[in-house]
Amino acid sequence: MYMKKRAFIIGFTFFTFFAHSQVVDPIIMEINGRAIPKSEFEYIYKKNSEESIIDKKSLQEYLDLFKNFKMKVFEAQSQGLDTTVEFHRELNEYRSQLAKPYLTSIATDEAIVKKEYERSKEVVEISHIQISMVNSEDKSDAASKVFLPCDTLVAYKKAMQIRKRLLKGEDFAKVAVETSEDERSVAADVPGYLGWISAMNLPTDFEDAVYAAKIGQISMPIRTNFGYHIFKVHARKASPGQIRAAHIMVACPRDADQQTVALAQHKADSLYLLTQNSGADFAELAKNNSEDTGSGANGGDLSWFGYGVMVKEFQDAAFSLTSIGDISIPTRSDFGFHIIKLLETKPLESYEDKKDELLQRIERSERYTSLQGVGLEKLKQENGFILNQDAYKYLLSQASIAHPLDSAFLVPLAENKDVLFSTGDTKVNISQFISFLKESSSSPYTLSTEVLNERLFAFERTSLLEEEDRQLENKHSEFRNLMNEYRDGILLFEISNMEVWEKAGKDSESLTNYFSANKDKYSWEKARYKGYVVNCKDKSTKNKMQKEIKKMSPNDAAQYLVQNYKVGEVSYLRIDKGLFVEGENAFVDQAIFKKGKAQALADFPEYFLIGKFLGTTPEEYVDVRGLVITDYQNELERQWLKSLNEKYTVKVFQEVVDSIN
Q1: b vs e for 32-64, b when ≥16 Cβ sit within 10 Å of the residue's Cβ?
Q2: Poorest-confidence range of 243-247, 372-376, 407-411, 576-580?
Q3: How far is Cα 91 from Cα 599, in angstroms, rounded to an integer?
Q4: Residue 3 pLDDT more than 70?
Q5: Distances (CA, A) of 57 to 107, 139, 603
Q6: Which of 557, 510, 551 is nearest to 533 (CA)?
Q7: Is there a contact between 300 and 283 (Cβ–Cβ < 8 Å)?
Q8: pLDDT digits (tens, 9 = 90+) for 439-481
């Protein structure tokens, strides 16, 4: 029923359009005093005239159909069908689906995307020194910690002192060994060396500073979730594009003892020698030997990657391969030894080809606030967004002494009803923001004030989208029209089902009476035999069956035979029911139509018939059930429309009708 209903509603576009226009929209019709604008009728009339090639109707025919439709919808409303739980559930479900494209697409600042694309044309070689905003015991988890502004001061002062040393000419690598808290880069062959960096692989502020810096320049301290960074740019070059490579890995952690390293090195060297044998299958070697089980299952294939994605040692080895099929000697990284094979190369894609990928990456990073900032400002203007600066300043002051995810921040503000901002007629208070913060606490930042600003941005966006949702019908005519279409379609379906379809389909007595009163309307072109063909095992069984059912009606006889001559999976007969015309059943053809000779069934060689020959005239309504139901529905429809016309006063403004071209 649901699928039938949905198809009915979707297909009923003819009857639904509500135009909201800034110009005068004259009234074309009134039904019990309820005005219907010309634009509503004119749209559906012209739309269906253009689409209906075979069944074109006149203006007056469309007007009559439209009037009948509106009366049915009004009748559904008068019976309260638009107030039921089921009606609202279905309408709300449809609205939620329909609203998604309007609410998930916030205008983005394409300049942000283009900036990242321009940066992706270049890779930058850098070293850095990191000063964490935590003590030495906690520095390994620095990015997962939360900080207050006061926590940054000691690290910042230390970073500035280090920068002074570098500006005086001290060797960057030497100072990195002495001061940097990034253990991995300190352990590099050149301490502090990060290697070649590409766009979208550093935190936003760090990347901005790197791409703005000059070669040889010592940067100011740049703060990220990891702490403060002082970096130096060594060189720049054009991006080499992307490569697709496969590898075989022998696991060996950086801090492994000499014996473990030697064993891993020996295994990697042996595998490398195997790759050099003619006919060796690199993919099979990877599947059977690589300790990177993820890529190993795919023959070692790592798919496409560019600069800044892989660890430095792997990246350097992979990008040093020049010809498709080249295989590197074993290269050690923090993960172990890698034997790398170059599979494919490709240059940097065009902006149009790269745009969607960059957009998705930006939306998943902390850059999303910059990306959606323009769109959010547009939504604010459209929805009358008014900010309470004092409330924002108060929240910021609280975030300076307690982290926004800490109970010391959340609990005191949980009942605060001060207005934070308003959108349209909706006022949003601080306690609502706190509720949002409890349910949606994930942030790409760790510093308390940055977390607050990012979560406020997300809350503003959510609130504005909720306001946008409330205003969709007012702002978007196509949305309004589709909602009206679906709403009226549901009501039309339900009222038609009640008044016509269910009555016609379930009222056997009325169908019988209707058939009896209109029996002359129904006949067949070909004569028919109505009844059952019974095939049985032998003549004695046949005689016994016929004797037992002699005084029964055909239907009772058939039921009796099935009940008494089928025991479990053992059956003494086969029975077929039908309204048979000549040519449909060989046994009926032989016995009734005197045509041909039926071939006896192997398991049931004897047969007989139960029923009667009807000729071309149906005996009862079930013989032509489909036709009778359709005709009876049409009769109910006619009677219903007659009663609606008696109930509803319809006034048509002919001069408005005549103005439609």
Answers
A1: eeeebbbbbbbbbbeebeeeeeeeeeeeeebbe
A2: 372-376
A3: 59
A4: no
A5: 44, 79, 60
A6: 557
A7: yes
A8: 998 999 999 999 999 999 999 999 999 988 988 988 888 888 8
Task: Catalogue the E-assigned strands of 2-73.
Answer: 27-31, 34-37
What are the residues whose beta carbons fall under 8 Å from the beta carbon of 659, sequence distance 6 or more? 26, 38
CATH homologous superfamily of 1-108+473-522+619-661 = Porin chaperone SurA, peptide-binding domain (1.10.4030.10)
Pick one of 3.40.1170.60, 2.40.50.100, 3.10.50.40, 3.40.50.300 as the CATH number of 122-238. 3.10.50.40
Give the whole-angstrom CA distance, residue 102 versus residue 478. Answer: 11
Give, in degrees to the nearest 5, the angle at Cα 299 between 296 and 302. Answer: 75
DSSP assignment string, 379-417: HHHHTT-EE-HHHHHHHHHHHTTS-TTSHHHHHHHTT--
Q: How far apart are CA 65 and CA 41, in angstroms?
A: 11
Quickly list H helices, 472-564.
Answer: 472-475, 477-496, 502-506, 508-517, 539-548, 554-564
Q: Which residue reads 């964490």 in tokens?
A: 132
- DSSP character string of 618-632: -SSGGGGHHHHHHHH
Question: Are 247 and 339 in contact, with CB atoms under 8 Å apart?
Answer: yes
- The per-residue DSSP string of 205-235 comes to HHHHHHHHPPTTPBPPPEEETTEEEEEEEEE
Query: Whole-model pTM above 0.85?
Result: no
Q: Is the pLDDT of residue 134 over 80?
A: no
Amino acid at 140: S
**Complete DSSP assignment for 573-584:** EEEEEEEEPTTS
- Encode pLDDT of 217-236 as tens digits: 999 999 999 899 999 999 99
Q: pLDDT digits over 81-125, tens only?
A: 999 999 999 999 999 999 988 887 677 889 999 999 999 999 999
- Whole-angstrom Cα distance, residue 436 to residue 351? 37
Q: How confident is the model at residue 5 (pLDDT cuts 50, 70, 90)?
A: low
Instruction: Choose between 453 and 14: higher pLDDT.
Output: 453
Residue for token pair 């049409």 = 634
- Is residue 328's pLDDT more than 90? yes
What architecture (CATH level 2) is domain 242-347? Answer: Roll (3.10)
Rg (CA), the chain: 40
Q: Is the dihedral of CA 406, 407, 408, 409 positive or negative?
A: positive
Rounded to an integer, the average pLDDT of 9-14 is: 44
